[in-house]
Amino acid sequence: MRYPTEHKQQTRERIVKAAARRFRSRGSEGAAIGDLMRDLRLTHGGFYRHFDSKEDLFAQVFEHSLEQVRHKFAPAVARAPQGQELKALIEAYLDTAHCANPAEGCPLAALASEVARRPRSTRVAFQRALESHITLIARFVPGENETERERKAMTLISGMAGTLAVARMMTDDESRRRLLDSAKQFYFHAAQQ
Questions:
Q1: Is there a contact between 95 and 180 (Cβ–Cβ < 8 Å)?
Q2: What global pTM score does this model have?
Q3: Residue 181 resides in a domain
Q4: Cβ distance 10 to 50 under 8 Å?
Q5: Residue 101 pLDDT exceeds 80
Q6: Is 81 exposed, middle or buried (0-12, 13-18, 19+ CB in 10 A)?
Q7: Is the backbone of residue 116 left (phi > 0), alpha (psi -120 to 50) or beta?
Q8: Structural domain total, the chain
Q9: Which of 43, 47, 143, 153 fits as disulfide partner to 137, beta carbons 3.0 to 4.6 Å?
């Protein structure tokens, strides 16, 4: 029996969404394709009807996760008074709830060290997704021109992802909160320079 084209697309989206949660919470090596497919009540062999490899899925997950993060923080930015969008974005990103939930959070904070270990040819897709993300964030960053805004946005995003990763390592809530609060102030001030 053949399934309609939309069924294949829906199945692919289910796989990407489930894998995104797993990869961000367990890392790509901790998320076996067989287990993922079984939990979705799909066959392991069916995976290859949707993706060429686990690397292909990992790249799709990274891009999907960046989109998810943008949509997650868009309401905070939209509600911010004009000129305060960047501050709202920084506050939302470095929030304790975002820190406590890597499975739903930023893939940079959860997966950057794994992406760095991928072959150069594979990292191209990740870099493209990241550059697109940076371009969108740059519109909220002050600067004399687009190049300066994008440079600052790249540094800001990299720094905030690193801060989030370090905060997740901390064992007590108070230390984690202090780091996040301090970083919010630092990044907002630095981005204004």
A1: yes
A2: 0.86
A3: yes
A4: no
A5: yes
A6: exposed
A7: alpha
A8: 1
A9: 153
Q: What angle do CA 93, 177, 136 make, to 5 degrees?
A: 10
Residue 124 identity (one-letter amino acid): V
Query: 22 in a domain, yes or no?
Result: no
**What's the one-letter identity of residue 38?**
R
Domain membership of residue 183 as a residue range: 54-192
Extract the tokens encoding 183: 């970083």
CATH number reported for the structural domain that contains residue 75 in this entry: 1.10.357.10
Whether residue 101 is contained in a domain is answered as: yes
User: What pLDDT does 118 receive?
Assistant: 85
Residues 181, 80: contact at Cβ < 8 Å? no
Instruction: For tokens 């394709």, name the residue.
Output: 33
- Please write the tens of the pLDDT for every residue from 75-91: 999 999 999 999 999 99
HEC states along 108-148? HHHHHHHHHCCCHHHHHHHHHHHHHHHHHHHCCCCCCCHHH
Q: In one letter, which amino acid is 166?
A: V
Tell me the per-residue pLDDT of 115-153, one tens digit each, with 9 for 90 and over: 888 888 778 988 999 999 999 999 999 999 999 999 999
The per-residue pLDDT for 3 is 65
